TrEMBL record, chain A:
One of its GO terms (biological process) is tRNA 5'-leader removal. GO terms for cellular component: ribonuclease P complex. Belongs to the eukaryotic/archaeal RNase P protein component 2 family. Keywords: tRNA processing. Residues 182-204 have a biased composition (Acidic residues). This is Uncharacterized protein. It comes from Pygocentrus nattereri (Red-bellied piranha). SUPFAM superfamilies: Rnp2-like. The gene is DNAJC5. Residues 176-204 are annotated as: Disordered.
Automatic annotation (TrEMBL), chain B:
Component of nuclear RNase P and RNase MRP ribonucleoproteins. RNase P consists of a catalytic RNA moiety and about 10 protein subunits; POP1, POP4, POP5, POP7, RPP14, RPP21, RPP25, RPP30, RPP38 and RPP40. Within the RNase P complex, POP1, POP7 and RPP25 form the 'finger' subcomplex, POP5, RPP14, RPP40 and homodimeric RPP30 form the 'palm' subcomplex, and RPP21, POP4 and RPP38 form the 'wrist' subcomplex. All subunits of the RNase P complex interact with the catalytic RNA. Several subunits of RNase P are also part of the RNase MRP complex. Residues 242-266 are annotated as: Disordered. The gene is RPP30. It is found in: Nucleus, Nucleolus. Gene3D superfamilies: Metal-dependent hydrolases (3.20.20.140). GO terms for molecular function: RNA binding. Transmembrane segments: none annotated. InterPro entries: Pol/histidinol_Pase-like (IPR016195), RNase_P_p30 (IPR002738). It comes from Pygocentrus nattereri (Red-bellied piranha). Keywords: Acetylation, Nucleus, Phosphoprotein, rRNA processing, tRNA processing. This is Ribonuclease P protein subunit p30. One of its GO terms (biological process) is tRNA processing. One of its GO terms (cellular component) is nucleolar ribonuclease P complex. Belongs to the eukaryotic/archaeal RNase P protein component 3 family. Pfam families: RNase_P_p30. The lineage of its organism: Eukaryota, Metazoa, Chordata, Craniata, Vertebrata.
Amino acid sequence: MVRLKARCVRTNKLFFPCFVSFLDGCGACVYVCRYLLCEVCVSQRSKLQLLEEKAIFQAVKSAVAKAHGEYGAALFSIGSKVTYLNAYTGVVMLRFRKAFYQLLWSALPFINSIGPQGRKVPCFFNCIYVGGTIKTCQKFLVRYDRQQLYRMLPHCKTGAEKQEVRRAVQTCSHSFYKATQQEDDDDDDDDGGEEGEEEETIVL
Amino acid sequence: MSVFMDLNIIAIADKAKLQSTIETAAHLGYSTVAINYVVEGQQKKQLIPKPQPVAELFEKFPIVQGKSRPIKVLNRLTVVVTDASHFRLANAYKDFDILAVFPKTEKLFHAACMTYDVDIICIAATEKQPFHCKRSPVNGAIERGVHFEISYTAAIRDSTMKKYTIANAINLMTTCKGKNVIVASGAEAPLEMRGPYDIANLGLVFGLSEGDAKAAVSTNCRSVVLHGETRATALGIIHTMKRPQPPSEQPEEETPAAKKAKTETD
């Protein structure tokens, strides 16, 4: 377990594979995880900037504890983590152990607000994807964010906004294809995710 | 293929809020929603509300997430029956696409399952159901194609309600074994909606199996909508409707046509 943790820190955070197996003296030790990509929906998009990993972790923790009691809290304390947070698009990636992710997931609909007492942001979690690895989640997220850009296009009021979104769509699709081509060529792929993030920052 | 539906969005007078709720539903990936008008049967002469025409709600309906077509909006009526006289013949309710009934006593629950011409039977979410769901009426309802509805908004709002909702849901599931169940929101505000995948997973808490929970937000809802359509028609085979053309000019045009036809036959 200690070795697993050390490895987790050393590797790139976004590309840490979930399916970690390493042969020890005692035998194979496998942890299978599930990654939940959730969208945090708020009434005003500007409130998304207030999101923090810590606050989300606390909100999920208390929701699980409230829904499933001490048993749920105990399960949550094993291997659960907020892996990724994008405060611009409001996408959160949560990591749970596969053995009981459904139980922990069933507590997520009961989250009403995030944040410390007094500065609560009313919101809700909408799960958009469940993946087995971070890589598949990322692939999905790039595709999903591009869809959001297409959805954004008809809502643009001014011409400048329209141009901006159009440009973002073009750049992201170009880089996406480039990234996928590179992926096909050689399996060493560090492009996909970064492109995904780039595209999101362009828009907002 | 799965098309998600949410057949319970409470109709509120605030049009902007209703619009934003429906927009949220489209964003979450629901391709059909139903606006729910609730009628309490307390008064002697209950007033059935006129449903607002759906086309007036939006100039342009929001596009569903992941699909390219706009969201479909239906009208639904829920009749709360505390006495047998509160439920009238189906003719009075023909303006609505879906008809639901919320029985308060065991006798009415039995009648709703076996005889009432409805699409949905609501299960209490804000109080402990005062009666036990018996096997025979529930089986009768399943045979007739009537569905049972669990709404989850009350559970999200308050933890006591959550207890009641889960207890009533599990009580029902032990009887109907997960068949003919739909899970709908009953939302009044946009932040009370939840995504379809979350609800499918929440079904596990309500005692549904994985497949049944997914069917509760997709295929079962579809059969409710189709059942609602058959109510307006004769067994779903024949459907009569008024001709939309104005009748003023028709007789003048028709007579020459008839004459012409005669001359042709001669």
